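Quick one, probably user error.
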């Protein structure tokens, strides 16, 4: 069914004000990774709680060992109505390098129908559209067809270190029939998309220590093991010549995708050449025997995220570095376990590390992979709501990124998770010039407003 006329009218009439509010949210530099933004994350949490109170939710800002968690609740729909947990994050990635932004990251600017700002799409814009969908219901009808708990965290971009514990201890309060999350993208403009999978993550840091201090590479080189070379040798063993991960046991738990799921991926309108052009690399590459989308959605990886050692400044300096460091992350697929993979990587690194240096490996954070079969009334309601808002049936897509808490929600709360995002390819999440399409912000709000009505419609069991 189409979006109810009163919701439609409310959202159209309030469009300018809703945009202004979103811009206020985007102006708060709630960068979770940087301690100098500590006050800003608190400000963003409080701002969000206040906006949720404005629309009629009761709220709580819960301090954690890191950044606060914001809870908003509205439970007046009664026991017969479904309870939905809406999750999102109000923290953002650092904006650097600042010189590559065409307009300042924390001064939202509209160009060509896009809202440019850090966090526009990941995830403030997508979180805020949920608050506005709730507002449309509560302001026009004074009620909602569902009970709602909104859970917004401020640490998603740093691996959600305090969230699983919070979900665990608050499991009763967060108990629900469905979890709904908008923190992902559509496959293409105009093509609404429901996610069927996320990859998990194990993030590690490898430190290699050689001499106590940097040394003259002429006076000592050749007689003292170079930690940069040692580290290069270690990370060179992570892949074989087919670009498969060569860490023993790495693929043991990988559950194969069904032929149906593979066919669904092949049927998507994916333009490999366009994808390569967007990436800007001379050619694409990855594990042998897999298509590009399969590599990103269905296969685990081991990637070097950062390398540091020795002299990297202007000109030449003959130095034998004292230390070398690598940041490494493995993206995981069901049923790989982040802790098990950390153990395997650690054992492998210890095995291949050359003598003469000290190697230390630290696990920084991790998250479970997730895959769903998308059967049941929640997904049926989502298909109808997205079709109503976008005029097109949604496609089922995978995702290579991670939202660490999703696996925890499923495990702890036992509720199905719907991941329906309104970003677009090329949106520059985590990069300079991040943007969200204005049209998707508006249609996304309408789709979510429609979803609550669709979820309340009794259906004949079929
Ligand atoms: N919104 C993303 C997750 C995502 C990425 C969804 C790409 C769809 C496409 C989320 O904010 C994110 O960036 N997650 C991190 C998690 C990590 C820091 C634990 C990621 O995937 O790197
Ligand atoms: Zn992100």
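Nope, works fine. Designed sequence:
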């Amino acid at each position: 069914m189409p979006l109810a006329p009163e919701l439609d009218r409310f959202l159209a009439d309030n469009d300018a004000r809703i945009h202004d509010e979103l811009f206020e949210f985007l102006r708060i530099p709630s960068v979770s990774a940087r301690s100098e933004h500590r006050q800003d994350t608190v400000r963003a949490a409080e701002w969000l709680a206040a906006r949720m109170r404005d629309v009629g939710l009761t709220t709580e800002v819960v301090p954690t060992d890191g950044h606060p968690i914001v809870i908003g609740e509205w439970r007046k729909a009664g026991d017969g109505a479904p309870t939905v947990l809406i999750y999102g994050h109000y923290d953002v990635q650092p904006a650097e390098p600042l010189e590559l932004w065409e307009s300042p990251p924390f001064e939202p600017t509209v160009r060509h129908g896009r809202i440019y700002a850090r966090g526009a799409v990941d995830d403030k814009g997508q979180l805020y559209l949920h608050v506005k969908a709730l507002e449309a219901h509560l302001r026009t009808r004074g009620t909602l067809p569902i009970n709602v708990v909104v859970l917004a965290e401020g640490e998603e971009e740093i691996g959600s270190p305090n969230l699983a514990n919070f979900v665990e201890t608050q499991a009763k309060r967060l108990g629900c029939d469905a979890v709904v999350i908008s923190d992902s993208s559509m496959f293409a403009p105009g093509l609404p998309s429901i996610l069927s999978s996320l990859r998990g993550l194990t993030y590690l840091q490898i430190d290699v220590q050689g001499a106590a201090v940097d040394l003259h590479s002429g006076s000592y080189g050749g007689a003292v093991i170079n930690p940069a070379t040692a580290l290069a040798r270690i990370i060179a063993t992570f892949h074989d010549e087919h670009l498969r991960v060569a860490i023993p046991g790495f693929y043991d738990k990988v559950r194969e995708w069904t032929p149906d799921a593979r066919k669904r991926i092949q049927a998507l309108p994916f333009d490999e050449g366009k994808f390569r052009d967007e990436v800007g690399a001379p050619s694409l590459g990855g594990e042998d025997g897999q298509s590009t989308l399969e590599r990103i959605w269905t296969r685990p990886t081991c990637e070097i995220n950062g390398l540091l050692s020795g002299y990297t400044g202007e000109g030449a300096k003959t130095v034998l570095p004292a230390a070398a460091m690598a940041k490494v992350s493995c993206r995981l697929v069901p049923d790989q376990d982040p802790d098990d993979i950390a153990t395997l990587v650690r054992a492998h690194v210890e095995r291949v590390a050359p003598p003469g240096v000290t190697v230390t490996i630290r696990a920084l954070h991790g998250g479970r992979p997730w895959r769903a079969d998308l059967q049941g009334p929640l997904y049926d309601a989502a298909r109808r709501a997205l079709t109503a808002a976008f005029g097109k049936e949604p496609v089922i897509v995978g995702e290579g990124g991670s939202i660490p808490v999703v696996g925890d929600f499923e495990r702890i709360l036992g509720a199905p998770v719907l991941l329906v995002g309104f970003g677009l390819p090329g949106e520059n999440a985590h990069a300079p010039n991040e943007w969200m399409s204005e049209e998707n912000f508006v249609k996304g709000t309408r789709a979510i407003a429609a979803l609550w009505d669709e979820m309340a419609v009794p259906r004949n069991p079929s």
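Residues 120-141 form the longest helix (22 residues).
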